[in-house]
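User: quick one
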Amino acid sequence: MAQLTADSPPATEPLLKVRGLEKHFGAVQALYAVDLDLPAGQVTALCGDNGAGKSVLIKCISGVYQADHGHIFWEGQPVHIHNTRDAARLGVETVYQDLALCDNLDIVQNMFLGRELLRRRLLDEDEMERRAAKTLAGLRVTTVRSIRQPVASLSGGQRQSVAVAKAVMWNSKLVIMDEPTAALGVNQTRMVLDLLKRLRDRGLAVVVISHNLNDVFEVADRIAVLYLGRMVIQDKAAAFDRQKVVEYMTTGGMSRSGGQAAS
Amino acid sequence: MASAPEEAPDLTAAAQAAQAEVPPELVAQTFGEYARAYVSRVRNGGAGVLPVVVGLIAIMVVFEVISPRHVFLSAGNLVNLFEQSSVFMVLAMAETFALLLGEIDLSVGYVGACGAVIAVQLVQPVTTNWPWWAAIAAALAFCAAVGAVQGTIITRLGIPSFIVTLAGFLIFNGVMLILLLLGPFSGFPNLGAPSPNVQVLYNLMAGTIDPTVSWIAMAAIVFGLGAILWFSDQRRRRSGLVAPPVSLTLIKIALIAGAGIVVVAISDINRANFGTLAGVPWVVPIVLGVLGAWTILLERTQFGRYVYAIGGNPEAARRAGINLALIRTIAFALCSMTAGIGLLLYASYIGGMSNNVQGGQLVLFAVAAAVIGGTSLFGGRGKVIHGVLGGLVIGGIYNGMYLQGLDVQRIFIVTGLVLLAAVTIDSLSRRAASSGTATRV
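Assistant: Done. Structure below.
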């Protein structure tokens, strides 16, 4: 855990920079010298076929796994992320595909789970409710009737919103979302994509793993494609079309020039 | 799980389900709206304690009508009923810790019985002659330690609680029999010794509190609870947080005051056939104390929040950085310790301990009481008060059928049917509430 230095990073420096990251599980090499740039205020879509290493890569960033080799730079400074608490301390929050919400708890209780506010050693429900309401209002999640309703009574999109609100409440700077729209219908997908754009507009760096190219092209500012554990290309979204992304995902860009383009 | 074709019907069903599961005070701020929201919630299966309260009233009415000379609601029988139920209530409150985690503890009967035997043995003047408080502390410490060991085996070795506590059930049945045979009491250590120290244990259940003292204590409790309710609701209303209407706060305070007055007034009627026997029995403040302490622990502290979280979604709790093994182990320790309190009340009721303790039956009644009261067998849903209400239902059936002169086999059958009815109602209402949201579960 390297402490951040006082001098601010240059404007062009990405919020988080991954260089030469390698990870293997036993004999299986999951990531080969992966580079990745995650600039603040941009949505980066991480694409790749099944087994390309998307989940392993984000788990190395969010502290679930430890990389074997390589460096992670946070605002230009090298950091070591040993566990999820280290990541949370930096400002990295992950919204898992299964959302990790407790159905029997209400929205406020879920948003503060594990980080409850206390007053005289008892739960400070009033303050937690106020802060949760403020965060939800800031994300313009207004469709929930009451923030004291159990999560079990929410729709899929609302649940996703609660999970995102839980992630951004802690002054996080980088939000990682794993397949946020995979289980959602049309309206609810729209709700979540709008939410993603609002996070970006607030200056957060956002990483989205998605198989849905419609969603990718709608929200992504940058696209990075993994193929069999290698980062085959990352560039501005405008530099891609559907055909090209699919090609990189399925062949690693063999038919084209290959290699990595600078952003 | 949620595929595209299911999405359209899901939207309307989810709205109904939302109505069923949202506590009414969350969507309504005036009393009329509140009442309508509550009725809608009851019809959609989210009735809370309503079924068990209705069941209790039905039990009272039926047994009062059919009991010989209508003695069921007499002061003497009501106090007796509460005393009989108190063991079930406290054991059900103990079991709540395990049930909320989605686990079960089958050993509460005999672990608690071991604790009670330890306390009864330690205060005997002819042997150890410990002061009563030290004997009780030793008994509860023993129970808590047993619970912690069982909890450790369950969490660290990953063995199902059903098996570990079934082993505990057998082990501590044996340990209890060994402990009973210690000392010169032929296996029946009792609380009959005239020393005041022993009498404290003897009076845990039925020893009476002076009427003046009980009125003052009751007033203090009602005033304190009322003030807390009033000021916290008032503060929430002022700062624009979700809060019930003023009228509802006042009704709640009035109900608490009414219950307090009724309990003390009934207890202060002379219930002896000869001479005088009046006053609130000690068991009332003991049960209320356990209820209050565990309610605060489970609903107002981080520990309690984590117990609910683990019962609801252990994986989410783990990712939130909660130490699952520690919380589960503490919960099992508290479960066993509370069982010790329950069996101390049992020893006081019987006037000692013997090998007649039906540890298996007590466990089944404890689980039944918690479930009848509204606690889910599947974890994450339930409250401490459910154990008290369910214990009253079981105690009421027991007491009422006993007054009819019915034998124990029929009492078992009826109690079993009531449990089955309670679980069926619970399961059906949950299915009604979640039918539209099944894709999410």
